[in-house]
């Protein structure tokens, strides 16, 4: 079955490559400095499509390679733009490139891909030419025996500045782990049936471990309906909406102490365009719970469980994505049966490691001052494929795909929920199709995570529960075999209101996919997807507020603070912003004019 799918993909991608070649030739990609021939693009397309062991470079169909010989060293220098249209990641390789000696590789990042062009000027003295609004910089970090590159590598910094800070060398470092995650990985890696042991412990002791609820307080009618993305659908009028006690750490405007009226949005103090809300599924309007789409009935626990939501006005923020040092991983998930794996192929895309590229699980320091929020990305590769249902026989188990800075690290698969960002900053969320592959050359970031919680009804334009929301195995929702296990979960959705678009992050203290779908539906989301689950480090969200020169870190719930680190002086070092992490992340930055 997957052979037919791949044939369709090949035909479509051939059109994509022809289009890309023509577009670059016409100069429509403002950051692409070199035209690529149809012949080169065709060769790279063949490498991308082939089912075999391959290199990370062979997985990049739009790459541009330039090779020169260094006259003073009798060595060859190769400069590879991973995707010229995105202008974010580059690979510099220096060596003899023979079968006996591997070249030395350096993964270099452009921290300003939309504002700074990077071009290799060939000739007797090859030089990088960097252009942005501040002027032109000439840089040859390979000169003087690669002294600048060696010094940057020896710093041990995950991001080491090059060329006066106009570029960064990405250095491989170890990601941090919490004790819970270290224990889980140890069990899986060293004990027979370790996955079963971990699941037993989770199901027995961590079920509802983050469950949060509140008795209804006196209804005050405090708050307004027309704030942020717009209030959630609740049958009670404003003055009778339930008010609950909450434990969120976020500093909110308009609340009475730590009380929040269900379904209303409250502005986050110090972060214009960011809002927070609280919900208990039992309060959702019957027009939603009994409306279009099929979901399972909510039990009394998850009906009372508190959900926190944070909304970001996409007119103000850019969305970014980064892989962790270890996860999600690029090899095979153990979930699909081994019989579907082609012999000798180390992963579903022909690779099992990003090397010589470096993944860091951290925001580039050049973007730290503009970063307003981070949240954990999605499932590990071990859990990011299907064990039951139709998708195990399609595309080698339909492993979840992801793209960072225009570099394809795992192919985007049809039928999966996909959160993506295009080169022009456009943010989208949809169920990926074969036809959507025409977007590949324009994708800056993308992350897939299972099947949809909500899909957009083509007739009404409204979000309705996905077809597999109630099907535990085929939907790959994780949990117990009877599909009734509640657990801590996180998800995201897109909402349009009054001409504005919002990305909404949802933290569900204990919920099934059905509760998530109906909650996002109540908030008017057009599309929604699962992110990760089961532990606070997997559902982590923090906001960064600048106040009088200080950085204030506000966690969605207090327990997330324990995942951060502390310096010797006791000051907080925030996760993803102050140190590398083994998990992938999304982060939002202030949009520049």
Automatic annotation (TrEMBL):
Annotated source species: Pseudohalocynthiibacter aestuariivivens
Secretion signal, residue range per the UniProt entry: 1-35
The protein's name: Uncharacterized protein
Keywords assigned: Signal
Superkingdom classification of source: Bacteria
């Amino acid at each position: 079955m997957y052979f037919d799918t791949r044939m369709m993909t090949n035909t479509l991608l051939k059109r994509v490559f022809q289009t890309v070649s023509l577009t670059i030739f016409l100069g429509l990609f403002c950051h692409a400095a070199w035209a690529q021939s149809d012949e080169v693009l065709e060769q790279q397309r063949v490498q991308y499509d082939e089912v075999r062991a391959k290199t990370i470079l062979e997985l990049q169909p739009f790459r541009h390679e330039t090779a020169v010989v260094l006259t003073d060293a009798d060595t060859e220098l190769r400069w590879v733009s991973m995707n010229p249209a995105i202008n974010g990641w580059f690979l510099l390789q220096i060596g003899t490139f023979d079968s006996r000696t591997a070249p030395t590789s350096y993964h270099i990042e452009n921290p300003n891909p939309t504002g700074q062009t990077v071009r290799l000027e060939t000739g007797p003295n090859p030089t990088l030419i960097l252009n942005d609004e501040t002027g032109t910089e000439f840089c040859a970090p390979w000169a003087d025996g690669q002294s600048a590159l060696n010094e940057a590598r020896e710093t041990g910094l995950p991001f080491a500045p090059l060329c006066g800070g106009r570029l960064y060398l990405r250095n491989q470092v170890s990601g941090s782990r919490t004790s819970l995650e270290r224990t889980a990985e140890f069990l899986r890696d060293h004990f027979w049936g370790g996955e079963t042991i971990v699941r037993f412990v989770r199901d027995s002791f961590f079920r509802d471990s983050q469950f949060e609820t509140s008795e209804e307080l006196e209804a005050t009618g405090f708050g307004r309906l027309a704030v942020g993305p717009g209030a959630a659908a609740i049958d009670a009028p404003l003055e009778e909406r339930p008010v609950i006690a909450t434990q969120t750490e976020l500093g909110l405007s308009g609340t009475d102490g730590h009380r929040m009226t269900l379904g209303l949005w409250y502005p986050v103090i110090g972060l214009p365009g960011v809002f927070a809300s609280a919900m208990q599924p039992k309060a959702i309007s019957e027009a939603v719970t009994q409306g279009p789409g099929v979901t399972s009935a909510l039990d009394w626990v998850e009906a009372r469980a508190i959900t926190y939501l944070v909304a970001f006005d996409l007119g103000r923020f850019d969305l970014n994505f980064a892989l962790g040092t270890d996860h999600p991983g690029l090899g095979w998930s153990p979930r699909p049966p081994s019989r579907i794996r082609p012999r000798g192929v180390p992963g579903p895309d022909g690779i099992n490691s990003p090397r010589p590229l470096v993944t860091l699980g951290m925001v580039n320091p050049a973007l730290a001052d503009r970063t307003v929020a981070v949240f954990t990305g999605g499932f590990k590769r071990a859990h990011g494929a299907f064990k039951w249902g139709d998708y195990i026989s399609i595309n080698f188990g339909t492993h979840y795909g992801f793209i960072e800075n225009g570099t394809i690290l795992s192919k985007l698969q049809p039928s999966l929920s996909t959160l993506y960002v295009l080169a022009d900053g456009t943010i989208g969320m949809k169920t990926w199709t074969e036809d959507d592959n025409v977007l590949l050359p324009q994708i800056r970031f993308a992350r897939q995570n299972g099947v949809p919680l909500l899909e957009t009804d083509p007739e009404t334009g409204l979000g309705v529960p996905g077809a597999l929301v109630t099907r535990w195995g085929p939907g790959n929702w994780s949990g117990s075999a009877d599909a009734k296990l509640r657990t801590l979960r996180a998800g995201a959705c897109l909402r349009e209101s009054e001409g504005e678009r919002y990305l909404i992050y949802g933290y569900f203290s204990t919920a099934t996919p059905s509760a998530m779908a109906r909650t996002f539906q109540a908030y008017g989301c057009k599309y929604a997807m699962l992110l990760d689950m089961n532990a606070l480090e997997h559902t982590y969200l923090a906001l960064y507020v600048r106040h009088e020169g200080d950085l204030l870190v506000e966690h969605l719930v207090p327990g997330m603070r324990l995942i951060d680190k502390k310096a010797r002086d006791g000051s907080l070092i925030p996760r993803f912003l102050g140190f590398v992490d083994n998990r992938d992340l999304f982060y939002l930055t202030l949009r520049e004019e």
